[in-house]
Design goal:
single chain; 481 residues; Immunoglobulin-like; eight-stranded mixed β-sheet; binds zinc ion
Amino acid sequence: MDKEYIKKTAVIFAAAAVCAAALPLAACQNTPERTTYDITCTYSEERGTLSAVCDVTYVNTADTDVIKFNIYGNAYREGALYRPVSDELEGSAYYNGASYGGVQITAVEGGEWTICGEDENILEVTLPGTLAGGDSCEISISYTLELAEVNHRTGIAEHAVNLGNFYPVACARDGDGNFLECPYYSDGDPFLSDCADYKVTLTVPEGYTAAASGQLVESSGNTYTYSLENARDFCMVISDEFKRISAEAGGTQVYYYYYSDDNAQAKLDAACQSLEYFESAFGEYMWPTLSVVQTGFAAGGMEYPALTMINGGLDESGAIAAIVHENAHQWWYAMVGSDQINCAWQDEGLAEYSALMFFENSPEYGVTRTGLVNAAINAYRAYFTVYNQIFGDADTSMTRHLKDFVSDYEYVNIAYNKGLILFDTLRQSIGDDRFLAGLKSYFAENKGKIAKSDDLIACFEGTGVDVDGLFASFIEGKVII
Ligand SMILES: [Zn+2]
């Protein structure tokens, strides 16, 4: 996500059905390389719903009798334990007052199913027998996604419908094979998933335009089919107000979808330039398209593989900054995954620092390295002073669970600002050449995976420097800034 919203907010301290249908296990004859999702869905404007069938070919990594899916859409239901939007953003998110959504599962083929998890956030499918690691099985899930009126990842936003996290996402698994469940915290991006292949067929009402993570491979009337390979998520945004401009950058077709923008070309240019810069700095972008989408969104923006949502309410420089930050997430989140729930600084700090590097190398934008570093230091010191006064001893550790941040304000200062300061301190300490070499090897070695922070540190150490202590002093909260 982008931190833009923090500029608009004062310091607020936030508290941060069971069915069964036993069917035989339909084992796959040919196990694909990755889990695949084949989703067919239709948006109803009248009902404000997406009705869908999600056929999953699940590629199993360790023996199991059950398969668990995150059903993120349930976070929007009335009475949810964790609200999807923080106190700070609630006013701008719920533009029509309180509104609710949710996921109604109507049928599951492939096993008995139940809704469970800490906050009714998990669809658990019990298989007819044990599925061995390396084998695969087919599960078909029919459901209706009810959309709240909200400027957030999943909802009917002002001017567009945001279809982030719109399908059951197989939980990533830890080294012991345990499924990692992701309750929906309002701070940060509470998502963790492995890369998969997608085929998504979407039918929209007459007059709607769709932006999607994937490449359009087929269309008929108002029905569009997209494909996306080796991606950890898939997202769509639809609107009856969208205009679209496009350009090619480094072999990638870049689209900018917008409903109101007097300077749309500048946004497309920033998207193309930042994509080309990140490719030269870190490594090649791996999908054929990248869609930058202006939409209703309470924070600055939100990243998905091959698609980014940008808050339509941002001013010119805010929109450019959000586009560059979200594009950086294509490298640090989409291609190189990390644990966003326990280690948010890893992708947010890197996305912030990558944006700094882009602006440093693009003087026409008038944004300097010194300016950005000083802004982060000043914001961080202000946070530290306030939190020290309130809590006596501010917790400035960086690696912590999303639910352990007491506010968006704290989260942004730790994950984004302190993250940026960490990477700039590291660069000053080891020099530009080793810093860039470390980032290049981090990308090359972890593309398509979920990297641990130790993997990141090891890539810098691989350039012949000892940076363990530097990282530890930041991560553990000992460094004085
Ligand atoms: Zn971000």
